[in-house]
Amino acid sequence: MKEKLSLICDRLLSHQQIACCQSFFGIPHHGKDLLIYNILDLQKKPLLLIGHHGVVSAMTFGNAMSPVLLCSASADYIIVWDVQKCQKQTQKGELPTGKVIGTLLGKIIHLSFCFCDERVAACTEAAIYILSPKTQETLSRLTGHLGPLTSAEFCPWNENVLISTSEDRTFKVWDLNTETVVYQSFVLSAFPLLNVMFLESERFLIVGSADEQVFCYSIGDNHKFSPVTKMDLQKLEKRYKVQRRNMSHEAEVGESSTEDQVETSKPILALFCPLRNKNIHEIDDSWCCIGSSDGLYVVDLATSELSKVLYFKEISSLSIHMAGAWSISPKFENTMLVLVSSLFTPRVALMEMCLGDLEKIENGDEGLSVFPSSPPLHRSSLNTELKMKEPSNPKKKGSVQEQPLVFHSKVKSSGYTSSPRQVMFSPKTNAQKKSPPKKSKNVSSLHTDYPAEDAAPTIPCTDLSLVNNQVLCLQHSGHDKPVRSVSWSLSRQYWLSASEDLSLRMWTHCSSEPAIVMGDGMFSKPIRGAQFYYLDKFVLLGSGPSLHLYLYNVDVTSDDIKRYHQRSVFKLATRLKTSSTEITAMSAINDFLSYIVLVCGSDRSIQVVDMNRGGVASTMAEAHSRSIHCITQNKGSRFCTQTSDLYNLFLTSANTDGLKLWDLRTMRCVRRYDSHVIRCHPCFSSISPCGRFIATGSEDNCAYIYDIRSSLHLHKLHRHTDTVLSVSFNPAKPELLTGTLDGKLRLFQTNSRPD
């Protein structure tokens, strides 16, 4: 960001609407006149426009490139000027004139053109006036807010829709055809709402308030507004500073400095979207630029995170360090023009900002992937093998070996215990030869691929009530406390159960008794997660601050004399201690060989553990505002294939902080999902085998399905009787199973599946 021009004004222009476009910018002069500067030739004498009798309180440029229209307002007149026509009049020695489109409407707070420049919305403290620059008529007068108005903007894809904000802390959606309110928001903040912006590519409405809050809504059909996310600029800035410090590998230096301890108020003074250019790949359609009092903040609406911050105080060439008002206009050649007025001094500055300066922060760590790039190291714990002792049963010389008492393998019963025969033998005279049963050819279901193009499963088909309590565990498993983790092996022959009784049990599908029991003081903290790992070679679990990796061998043979003697064995291969006080969630891929284990800690961090090297490869601090209780990797399915890049995506969830999608290669959040409700219960999530959908539980007695590419929920599955805690996709066919707090299961299918 560089300063092109700085001007000293004759009066303070903070908290007043100023105007800037691609070719011109304007400021009030002596209160009631206007000075219009040519941006293409700043050395040229500014154009002086005279016509108001009162103090100019607001001004704005139109959207068309030609003619360039300027609307200015005072308490007596609202005037529309054709700037290019006024320049020609000045060159001829004539007095520039404009069209008066409104008279004696009161003090104007805000002005805006519609996108075809055929209508102007003028906000006074009590009403909105819709004016016509062509006919110079007042088309309508809109009232309804309980406080003074602050802004009004036309919808870019429907110019008959106007949205207004007010100091009553609400926004209203107006239908200009009927002059009625079609939607009114709740009270959103404790402070006034200042401005709105439309993001046409996503059909989003962005609302900013005076207390640093940014609200994002999705605009659907029939004026249906759905909340997408809510952001606090102060909290975003704190996470941004932590992220920038971690990526630059700085120690915690300067964190306690006086400068960092002073918090500056950050009202949302301006909202705008940078134009996308094909030559700049870093600029995303979901980016939103926020002009505040201390600088420019670039927010990625897909992730609700800051991508870049440009502070005025860090740019020594700027003459303004605290802003009172903003006006932004896009320009060619990947730059934007910003007109800023000073908060405390009568000064304005024209700044040019290169869109390349808004590129995202890149992670300093090497790019990580779930796919190994080289064989395991020679001393890697993944090469550890379990050495089994061969049974030693020496034969005693001269001993009598066991011999059968009869010569046949089967002995026919004597029949003493059977009931006497009531019917004598009778031959069958009409016996027909039976053809041998044909083998069923319906085995295609075992090899059918997952229908990756099918819709999400949303149709309920089966309900099952297990107990009249929350689905947390089944007490017949042999654990003494609730079971918190269950995991199948890749072969589906074994499964694990981890409990709060500090034990882990491995089960086989053909036995009601555990094959392996890990307990007896082996773990000092509850096991937060356990699973099979490295193609079922290991058992991986997290307890306390450490990851435990065990080799195992299951022996299900039994001896009647030593029935309770455990023949199965296990051995600790390695134990890795993380930097967290306690592991709250963990995940690893077992479907193919992978060195990566993802660990979430009580310090709200995400750590990437490289089991090949035996250490933490990367750490993302402050990943959520609270401890993460769920981490879900995109593990795919053997019935469906995905591109290799998709396997590097994973989800994390924390109470009151929504659901985040991360990319392991950059260790950055790439999207955020906030439509569901998660405040106190640990609701879990799941990724579909095709990688297209995300399902999550919610506390509003619904399950939500998202398209992984959009922050808006795709489906909301109703008819649950309590909080939906857990969800799971079927790996072989498009089905979704949900479990609720009151112990009920529900199965959902797609409408394309036959009954």
Structural commentary:
The structure is a single chain. The protein contains 3 helices and 52 strands. The two termini are 62 Å apart. Helices cover 4% and strands 40% of the residues. The protein is elongated, with a radius of gyration of 35 Å. The strands form 13 sheets. It has a 4-stranded antiparallel sheet with strand order 1-28-27-26, with no helix packed on it. Strands 2-3-4-5 form a 4-stranded antiparallel sheet, with helices on one face. By secondary structure, it is mainly beta.
Please state roughly what percent of the residues sit in beta strands, choosing from under 5%, 5-15%, 15-25%, 25-35%, 35-45% or over 45%: 35-45%
Mean pLDDT: 85
Strand order of the largest sheet: 1-28-27-26
Helix content: under 10%
The gross shape turns out to be elongated
Summarize the SSE layout with pairings:
Layout: E1 2-8, E2 19-20, E3 24-29, E4 33-38, E5 47-49, E6 58-61, E7 69-73, E8 77-82, H1 83-91, E9 99-103, E10 110-113, E11 120-123, E12 128-131, E13 138-142, E14 149-155, E15 158-166, E16 171-175, E17 180-184, E18 193-199, E19 204-209, E20 213-219, E21 225-232, H2 233-247, H3 258-261, E22 270-272, E23 287-291, E24 295-300, E25 305-311, E26 323-331, E27 335-342, E28 347-354, E29 459-465, E30 483-488, E31 494-499, E32 504-508, E33 516-518, E34 527-533, E35 538-543, E36 546-553, E37 569-577, E38 583-588, E39 596-601, E40 606-610, E41 615-620, E42 628-633, E43 649-654, E44 659-663, E45 668-673, E46 685-687, E47 693-697, E48 703-707, E49 713-717, E50 724-729, E51 735-740, E52 744-749
Antiparallel strand pairs: 1-28, 2-3, 3-4, 4-5, 6-7, 7-8, 8-9, 10-11, 11-12, 12-13, 14-15, 15-16, 16-17, 18-19, 19-20, 20-21, 22-23, 23-24, 24-25, 26-27, 27-28, 29-52, 30-31, 31-32, 32-33, 34-35, 35-36, 36-37, 38-39, 39-40, 40-41, 42-43, 43-44, 44-45, 46-47, 47-48, 48-49, 50-51, 51-52
Organism: Oryzias latipes (Japanese rice fish)
Protein name: WD repeat domain 27
Pfam family, one: WD40
